[in-house]
Amino acid sequence: MEGTMRAWYVTEPGKMEMREVPIPQIGPKDILFKVSYAAVCGSDLHAFDYGMAIQHYPIILGHEFTGYVVEVGSEVKDIPVGLRFMGTNIQWCGECDDCKSGNVFNCPDVTKNGLGFGVDGVFAEYCVLHNAMLNISVYPLPDNINDMEGATCEPMCVGAGLADALDVQDGDHVVVYGAGIIGQSIVQAIKARNKCEVAIVNRSTFRLELAKESGADYVISPTADKPAIDSLREIWGTAEYPYHYGKDSEACNVDIAVECTGNPGIAAECFHVVRKGGKISLVASYTDDARAPLAPADIYFKGPKLVDGLCGNFGKSVQLMSEGKFKTTHLITQVFPLEQLPEAIAAAKKTKNSCKVCVKVDPTAPDYPYNKQD
After folding, report:
1. Mean pLDDT over all residues of the chain?
2. How far apart are CA 180 and CA 176, in angstroms?
3. Would residue 51 be called left, alpha or beta, if left means φ above 0 and alpha means ψ between -120 and 50 degrees?
4. Does any domain span residue 15?
5. What digits encode the pLDDT tens for the residues 274-307?
6. Residue 369 within a domain
7. Are residues 168 and 193 located together in one domain of the fold?
8. Which tens digit of pLDDT belongs to each residue from 103-154?
9. Are residues 9 and 56 located together in one domain of the fold?
10. 233-269 residue pLDDT tens
11. Residues 69 and 184 in one domain
12. How many domains does the chain have?
């Protein structure tokens, strides 16, 4: 496809500039798509500020989107031009043994080729999805999911996959640390799947109010005088474990603890609050030098099960959104045009009045209702 497009390039940590550049060309296994709406991920903030996972500069960030296919490679047979879809941020080499055997998510190049990290992302009018595969990296959107909601299917996939991976049972007590869209997705997925109680912890009372709409049974805003563990004891009591007996036990009666903040101290707290034999999942992104102040006794005496937090389910996210079991309109708090991407990134950092910030990349795309905040 010939022509030019507008795109935001990050040139070094903390700096970006909009450029008018040629529309990218595709290979035989690729698709070119026009971006309608995109969304700002927490990892975009880390990538922009200090280069987390960035493979090279300059680069276009962004991996949460709704797109329309405008061109397909010669070897792409089952993805038609005009298809409206959401896609994965994970891209693979297509040549290694795992890729050839269909185990594409085990490809060692997924980060190197990640959309917005290793290859140019969606904060541009057009984008290429390499080695495109229907229902693996390309997921058609049904008509009852609008373009803005479609851009949130990618982050909501975390909850869709994790609820199953955790094997949540009816009657479980689940605590989720972090009330951004990832934490909200986990609350919604668990409540759609099981009859159990979910508490969510966050310092932003604004996000906690949103969590109530997402279905959280309890919302906790910890303070220095009353940490979350005290509130959890009040809600669910304590659970004894070897050499720690009685009402003064330090363990809460928590079956599952999920960490979505990226704070190593909160990761350690998950091990502290969970009962003996409980489950823990660390879902947030951490830098290689992050260290959690774990208490060995919490591991030795409790024997918790660690569940992989990298287990998103893209197809199920679209399904749950279409069925009305996932809702994100109340979580979308700001929408900016593409030319105001720096303002969108700044807004996403202000957790007191934001949750999910979207970018209307295509100026001709429809406007949709959302939970507008200043």
Report:
1. 95
2. 11
3. left
4. yes
5. 999 999 999 998 888 999 999 999 999 999 999 9
6. no
7. yes
8. 777 788 877 788 999 999 999 999 999 989 999 899 999 999 999 999 999 9
9. yes
10. 999 999 889 888 876 677 899 999 999 999 999 999 9
11. no
12. 2
Tokens 């704070």 belong to residue = 263
Instruction: Determine, yes or no, domain membership for 259.
Output: yes
Alpha-carbon distances, residue 151 vs 145, 212, 351 (angstroms): 10, 22, 20
What is the domain-level CATH number for residue 71? 3.90.180.10
Range(s) of the domain holding residue 59 = 4-152+328-360
Q: Which of 100, 294, 235, 256 is nearest to 170 (CA)?
A: 256
| Interval 35-59 mean pLDDT | 96
